[in-house]
Amino acid sequence: MPTLTNLTFGGITWEPRFAQSIDLEKCIGCGRCFKVCGQNVLSLRALNEDGEFVEDEDDDEIERKVMTIANPQYCIGCQACSRICPNNCYTHEPLTV
User: Fold this and answer.
1) CB-based burial of residue 50 (10 Å sphere; 0-12 exposed, 13-18 middle, 19+ buried)?
2) What sign has the CA pseudo-torsion 32, 38, 41, 45?
3) What Cα–Cα distance (Å) separates residue 46 from each residue in 49, 55, 69?
């Protein structure tokens, strides 16, 4: 299957790679990726000590927060999130057409 490619403004071939997953064990919830993503792809979510997501942010069970891919359909494949991530948490894949 062919992979989706584009050209940069300078005419260089560029292959977008889309966010597929975030390693929750590595993620420290620093929010750097959230700040660089202008596409509303990511969301910070709370985890309890059992590693389960907690919906009530005021809950005393919260152990830590991690970033999640909340809206993968908005990802444009720029990989800015993984370039800024201090813990190499992201997995990206090209789009095959």
Assistant:
1) exposed
2) positive
3) 10, 7, 13
Q: How many Å apart are CA 82 and CA 64, to the nearest integer?
A: 20
The residue with tokens 């597929």 is: 20
Query: Where are any strands of DSSP class E within the chain?
Result: 6-7, 13-14, 17-22, 42-48, 53-54, 62-69, 90-94
| Contact status, residue 77 vs residue 8, Cβ threshold 8 Å | no
Per-residue pLDDT of 23-50, as tens digits, reads 999 999 999 999 999 999 999 999 988 8
The pLDDT assigned to 4 comes to 86
Instruction: Please give the CATH number for the structural domain made up of 14-94.
Output: 3.30.70.20
Q: Distance between CA atoms of 52 and 18, rounded to whole angstroms?
A: 25
Q: What sign has the CA pseudo-torsion 47, 50, 56, 61?
A: negative
Q: How far apart are alpha carbons 34 and 80 in whole angstroms?
A: 10
